[in-house]
Amino acid sequence: MTAHAADFTQSPPVVWQAEAYCGKDYIAIRNSKTENVLNITKQLLADQINLREVSDFTAFLENIYQFLNNTPITQIIVALGDSTTANYNNWPRILSTLEGRSDLLVVNLADWGFSVENHILVAEHFLKWLNAAMTWKESNVLDISTVMLCGLTEGYLRLGEFIAFSHGERITPLHEHEELLTGHRYGGLLARLTGEFPADKKSVDRWIARRVVALAGLLGAICADAGSRFYGILRPTPYDDLAPGYLNALRRAYQADAAPSGFEEWCRDRGYKIDQSARFDLDLRPILNHLVELWPQQTGGFENSDYLDWSDLFREIDELCWEEDFDALHFNGVGTRLIAEGVIGLVHNAATHRRSREADNSASGHTAVTGGTADGRGRAS
Length: 381
Fold this sequence. Notes:
The chain has one domain (5-237, 281-364): Rossmann fold (3-Layer(aba) Sandwich). The longest helix is centred in the C-terminal third of the chain and has 32 residues, at 333-364. Helices cover 46% and strands 12% of the residues. Helix 6 (152-166) crosses helix 9 and helix 9 (204-225) crosses helix 13. It is globular and about 65 Å long. The chain contains 14 helices and 8 strands. The termini are far apart. An 8-stranded mixed sheet has the order 3-2-1-5-4-6-7-8, sandwiched between helices. It is α/β, with parallel strands linked by helices.
């Protein structure tokens, strides 16, 4: 019997951006939102990929099902994130090329401006669909990993909304879909936090960070239910103490320009951002500091879920890891490759532990349990 992707699709969320990579095969949704990135992709990678453009998410799932049907896929990595994961220079695409494997399928569900709660809605739907599709096909997939890069997008959206709420410009300080997710079966902590309105301005940053952590925990629980290992990663951030290479490169560009103006004026005139607080005109560092403190504490809350702080992943890297337009947000080829190598290192490490346990359990006659221990830094070994 031949299954149709629609057989597994029930009330899908609206998905405008989705890509998948398997060997040289590349599937992407083309619409008015994605066409610029796809045009760049076709221009730069035309001789390296077999690009298949589809019109919507249902057609995208059809093509994923064809991969599962016609290709011996043994490992799937699902990527979640904002524009830093959705742009042309993105780590999931680089990751898919690192080892030249035809049995690895990378599904990139990141989208511009997406925050954790958006990822929850999309990932929950996709993982349910994927499990149904694999059950129908009797798939050979051994490992599914879901990897989310997040951090300051979640912070600046919520801080901006809280400020607008305090000025009477919004009826709620909560971000889109947050109230909806308080009713989720894993939304108990989020429900309590959304009801704990901060007592003073000093409490706002930590309240925002705790809500982001609760949402990430909710996503980890969803992935555990779906049989996917989950990696929640605080993405690299160009504050000078976390990634000095960014500001050093910016100062070198200023010196090379020999501009008569001061450094900060020169940056303003060109739209260059000294760090992410400057990019969003909000002091986001306190939120990041709370996230760095709270984030790793989530590990162990749900089976096969790891929460890693990579905010300083580029601390020892002298090269610029962000785009040369110095927007303090999007990674260049150096940055995306370092992230891709770190993620594949995490996934390999977990797979090695899983195989080791399976061998031990087989020898002892016990049933194997999936999962593994992540490399705390996330760097490829």
